[in-house]
């Protein structure tokens, strides 16, 4: 079994995703980054933390 690299994943994404899909993914990532960087209020932080867990993302 070969190990996947980041370059392999980028190449796969380029082949599978359309431009609007890639733009939507980048916009979603930018929105999350904005929220985490600029809204570090405890309530917003806890809400994002719970959202990540609900989405199945392990954050600690």
TrEMBL record:
The entry's keywords: Membrane, Transmembrane, Transmembrane helix
Q: Answer yes or no on keyword Transmembrane helix.
A: yes
Does the record bear Membrane in its keywords? yes
> Any transmembrane segments, and where?
22-39
Q: What is this protein called?
A: Cobalt transporter subunit CbtB
Instruction: Report the source organism.
Output: Halobiforma nitratireducens JCM 10879
